[in-house]
Amino acid sequence: MTEIKIDKNAPRQVVRMLVDNQPNVLARISSLFGRRNFNISTITASETHIPNLTRITVVTSENDENVLHQIISQTEKLEVVKEIYLLDMKNSIYRELLLVKIRADKSERSAIHEIVTIYRGKIIDLSKSSMIIELTGSPEKIDGFMDMLSCYDVIEVCRTGITGIERGMAETV
Amino acid sequence: MEILLEQGVDTVFGYPGGAALNIYDTLYSYEKRSQIRHVLTAHEQGAAHAADGYARATGRTGVVFATSGPGATNLVTGIATAFMDSIPMVAITSNVANSLIGRDAFQEVYITGITMPITKHNFFVNKVEDLAHAVREAFRIAETGRKGPVLVDVTKDVSAALCEFTPQPKQKPNKVKPLAEQEAIEKIAEYINQAERPVIYCGGGVPAADAGNELKELIEKADIPITYTMMAVGIVGYQDEHSLGMIGMHGSVAANKAVDQADLVLALGTRFSDRVALNMEKFAKNAIKVQVDIDESEINKNVIVDLSVLSDVKYFLTKVLPLVDAKKRSAWLEQIAEWKQSSVMAQCPEAKLHPRDIINTMCDMTDQETIYVTDVGQHQMWAAQYIKHRNTKAFLTSGGLGTMGFGYGAAIGAKVGCPNQRVIHITGDASFHMNLNEACTAVSENLPIITIIMNNHVLGMVYQWQSSFYEKRYSATTPERKTDFVKLAEGFGVKGYRAETPEEFEKAFAQALQQTGPVWIECIINPEEKVLPMIPNGGTVEDIILN
Predict the structure, then answer these.
(1) What are phi and psi of B305, to 5 degrees?
(2) How many CA atoms lie within 13 Å of A167's alpha carbon, on the beta-carbon side?
(3) Does residue A73 belong to the interface with chain B, where contact is any CB pair within 8 Å?
(4) φ/ψ (deg, to 5) at A51
(5) Same fold for the domain at B182-341 and the one at B355-524?
(6) Residue-range domains of chain A with CATH
(7) Which of A40, A44, A101, B432 is the most interior residue, by most CB within 10 Å?
(8) What is the ipTM of this complex?
(9) Measured between beta carbons, which residues in chain B are less than 8 angstroms from residue A27?
(10) Best interface-test mutation with B: which of A1, A25, A67, A85 has the largest number of B CBs within 10 A?
(11) A28 contacts in B (CB within 8 Å)?
(12) DSSP labels for A102-150?
C-alpha cells in the first residue's frame, strides 16, 4: 500500500493531480468526491505546459490518514487521472489570489492604501466611491487581510482557492 | 461493427430506437452474415442484465446496445449491478444528432453524466474519427485490472458517418497488474506457518483472477479452513472438509465463528463489505488480518488490516505456496467440524414444501455443469446456502447491488453464452414480478431455461426483517397478489407447472427437464420460512439468530 505522509496539524491537505484535458474531466473528479463524501474546500483547474494535460488542485479539510488514502486511491482509478499525490506542505509553496471590492470614499482611501501596502497587495481599480484590491498569498495571509478590512464596507469577495508547487526538483512531471 | 468483431464479440443484447437506427441498420447485414447475433429483449434493463449474465457465465465481456433517452436510462440499473460486482461489460448507447445535443431534444439524455459514478469510464463520441479508439479503449478498460462496465455514447451523426477503418489486433489489457513484493510474501508465509487457527476469507477477486486451483493447493497443503463471500460461492466444492460455507449476515455458524476465533485471517480479493463485516470494529477481533487485493482503494476501506499486499491473487498464491509449510491443523479442523455439525437450521414446521427440499431435489436431478442464476431476496440466500456448488461460474447472482429483477435477464445471457449447459433461474414471486416480461425473449430465442418461482405471496426478505425487528408490522410486504403463474406462463408461450409438495415438485421438475423451451415451476412455500442463520446489522457472531 502506498504510504502517505501527512502533517496531522496542517489546517488543510492539498491534493495535486495531472489529468487528461478533455470535456467533463472536472465533473469526473468532483462527482467522485461527492459520491464518496470527501470534503472539497477549494478546487482549481488549469492547463499546463504539457499539451493535453490539466493540473487540478483540490484542497480538502480531511486529515485522517485512511480517508486521504481513499481519496488518492479512488481518484487514481479514474481513467483521466495520470498522476496524483498529496502535496508535502512543509516543502511546498502554495498561494491563493484574492480580489475584493470595497466601498471607500476619499476620506477612507489613504487608510486602506496603508493596509494594502503592508500586505503587499495592489489597488487595481479605483472609482469615486469604491476600489478593487488584488492580493496573493497563503490563505492565512488573506484571512488576516480580510480581518483588517472587516471595519470597512466589503461589497464583493472572490478567492481562487489554493494552488501549490513543491520546492526543488521533487516535481515528477 | 468491425471493431466489435475485432474485439471478438459475436453476441450483443439490446433494443433499437430512433437514435439507434443507423447502428441497427448496419447490424442487419452482420446478422444476415451470421457474424453477430443480436438478442432482442423486452426491456433494456433485461438486455443489460443479459450482457452481465453472459459475461459472468462465459468470462467474456458482455455487450449491450440501447437507444438514446429512456433506452439509455433503462440500462442504468444493469450497469450499476455489473459495476458493483466488477463484471466486464461494454454498453453502447445512441444519442441524438450533434446539432441537437444540449437542447433537450426528443429522447435526449445526458447518459455519460448519469453513468459517471457507475462505470469505470465512459465516452461521448461526436466525431466519427474518435469512434474506433473509444470502442477499443472501452473493451480494454472493461477487461483491465479490476473489471467493470464502460459506456460509449454515440451521436446519430457518428453512427451515420463513414470513415476509413484500419483494423488492429485486439489489445491485451495494458495496465500491468500489481504483483506482490517478495518481502510481503515472505512475511505472510511466516504468519501462515505460525498460525494455529488460520482462516482464508475469499471474495470475487479469486475467481476473477482465475486462482481457484492455487487456492485449493494452499488449503490442502497448509490445512486451512476457508470461507467465502457470495461472489466466490463455488470456489471450493460443497463437500470439501475445509469449506466453512459462506460468511456474513446469512453465512454459516461455522464460518462466522471461525473468523471470530481465528488468529490469522487471510482476505483474498475481497472488500470486507458491510454484509460480511457486519461490525467493522469487531470483525476477526483476535486475528492478524492480511489483505491481498488488486485494487489499492480496497485496502483499509472498510476494515483496517495489519498487513496489506497490492497484488493479483493468482500471482500472490503462486509465490506464497512454496514458502508455506505442509502441516496438519487437526485440533482447529476438529473444532470446525463440530461447529459445522451443530448448525443445521430448522425449517418452518407447518410448511409442506421447504426451500431446502426444492434446492436439494433440483441439484440431485441436474448435472454438474448446470448454471444457477438467482434474483434477490430470501430465495437467493437459500440458493447460496443449499446449492451443491462446485464452480464459481455456475452461480450467477447480484451481490453488491442486490438487484431484484436481475435473474431472468442474466439467465438469458448465460444460456445464450453457454448453450450446452443447463440454466436454472431461481427466483421469488416478488423479484419475478419485476422483470418477468423477459419471458417473451426466452420464448423468441427458444431458450430452455427452467425458472423456479418460490412463491410465498409476500416480499419475503423485507417481511422477515419486519417479523424479527419491527414487531410483525408488515408494511407494504403483503400485496395479496392473485397472479396465476401457470396461466401467465401459458400466455407468454411458456410451459408452466405448480407444485405444493415435494412429490409434485419432483414430478414437475422431471417434466421441465424434458422441455425444449422455457419452463416455469411455481413452488408454493410458507411465508414464515426464514433465512437462517442471521446476524443483524452491526452485530457479531454472538448476536446470531438461529430460529
Answers:
(1) -105, 165
(2) 6
(3) yes
(4) -60, 145
(5) yes
(6) 13-90 (3.30.70.260), 92-164 (3.30.70.1150)
(7) B432
(8) 0.91
(9) 113, 116
(10) A1
(11) 116
(12) EE--HHHHHHHHHHHHHTT-EEEEE-SSEEEEEEEE-HHHHHHHHHHHT
Half-sphere exposure of B53 (CA within 13 A, CB side): 34
Contact (CB<8Å) A70/B121: no
CATH homologous superfamily of B355-524 equals Thiamin diphosphate (ThDP)-binding fold, Pyr/PP domains (3.40.50.970)
Q: Where are the domains of chain B?
A: 2-160, 182-341, 355-524
Q: Which of A2, A28, A79 sits opposite B296 (nearest CB)?
A: A2
DSSP B179: -
| pTM (predicted TM-score) | 0.94
> Do strands A81-86 and A53-60 pair parallel, antiparallel, or not at all (unpaired)?
unpaired
Cβ–Cβ contact B140 with A under 8 A: no
Task: Kindly state whether B289 is in contact with chain A, defined as any CB-CB distance less than 8 angstroms.
Answer: no
Chain A residues closer than 8 Å to B117 by CB: 31-32, 35
Residues 16-45 of A with CB under 8 A from B: 23-24, 27-28, 31-32, 35
Beta bridge partners of A163: A95
Min Cα–Cα distance to chain B from A157, Å: 31
Answer for the pair A71, A98: CB distance below 8 angstroms, yes or no. no
Q: Superfamily assignment of B2-160 in CATH?
A: Thiamin diphosphate (ThDP)-binding fold, Pyr/PP domains (3.40.50.970)
**Contact with chain A for residue B310, Cβ under 8 A:** yes
How many residue pairs bridge chain A and chain B with CB atoms within 8 Å of each other? 39
Per-residue pLDDT of chain B (547 residues; tens, 9 = 90+): 788 888 899 999 999 999 999 999 999 999 988 899 999 999 999 999 999 999 999 999 999 999 999 999 999 999 999 999 999 999 999 999 999 999 999 999 999 999 999 999 999 999 999 999 999 999 999 999 999 999 999 999 999 988 878 888 777 665 567 888 899 999 999 999 999 999 999 999 999 999 999 999 999 999 999 999 999 999 999 889 999 999 999 999 999 999 999 999 999 999 999 999 999 999 999 999 999 999 999 999 999 999 999 999 999 999 999 999 999 999 999 999 999 987 777 788 889 999 999 999 999 999 999 999 999 999 999 999 999 998 899 999 999 999 999 999 999 999 999 999 999 999 999 999 999 999 999 999 999 999 999 999 999 999 999 999 999 999 999 999 999 999 999 999 999 999 999 999 999 999 999 999 999 999 999 999 999 999 999 999 999 998 8
3-state secondary structure of B202: strand
B479 shares contact with chain A (CB less than 8 Å): no
Query: Which amino acids of B are annotated catalytic?
Result: 44, 106-107, 156, 461
